[in-house]
Amino acid sequence: MALYVAKFGGSSVKDKEGLDRAARILAGERHKGNQVAAVVSAQGDLTDELIAKAAQLTGVPSPRELDQLLAAGEEISAALLAIRLEAIGIPAVSLLGWQAGILTDGQHGDAHILELEGSRVVQALAAGVVPVVAGFQGVDRLGEISTLGRGGSDTTAVALAARLRADECRIYTDVDGVYTADPRLDPEAVKLDRVSYDKMLAMARAGAQVLHDRSVLLARRCGVPIRVLSSFAPGEGTLVGDAES
Fold it and tell me: Is the pTM for the entire model greater than 0.70?
């Protein structure tokens, strides 16, 4: 039996069809006898929409209140995916960042994870329940919500995979792996079957949108294999790990 953390990006959970696909992916792993925990981003462009709503009220919203607002996007996704899983007969529980035990340094808008306690995630898995964790967020030592900045849900997923000692952290997105260039812009782009942490880090820092550099750094430090996959089509994706094949 394997244990996977599956992270679904905003494009993968943006509507009912996306939530259905994500639920089927998780159910498929369960039917294979594997354990799986999920991490989700906010649906589609919801984060941008929430920022725009705040901007209608003031040009300078307080960082604390903006984090309170933006964290709601991932919370909505987590609850909806848990609801869909239960609707198809898979026991599930949604967990906000603080409920999953994600402790941050409290820097609003760009917080770093200090610790992921994770006991409720472990308990859910032991009980045969799929935990669905809201990405991009945690709380500081005073209990204040803080968000992790760009790519924060990827970082949440890698941190959770490290805490659980998962076999892989699987990042589901709208592309079927890591390419030599953006396949949506360059028809000559070639998909890589495997890429090293260092090369992926260099690609991320050069502007590749597949993974944020902070999540790759954490994966390298903790030895977490990352597999980048499409939630829209089956395939092996790209494995990010210690060495290239």
Answer: yes
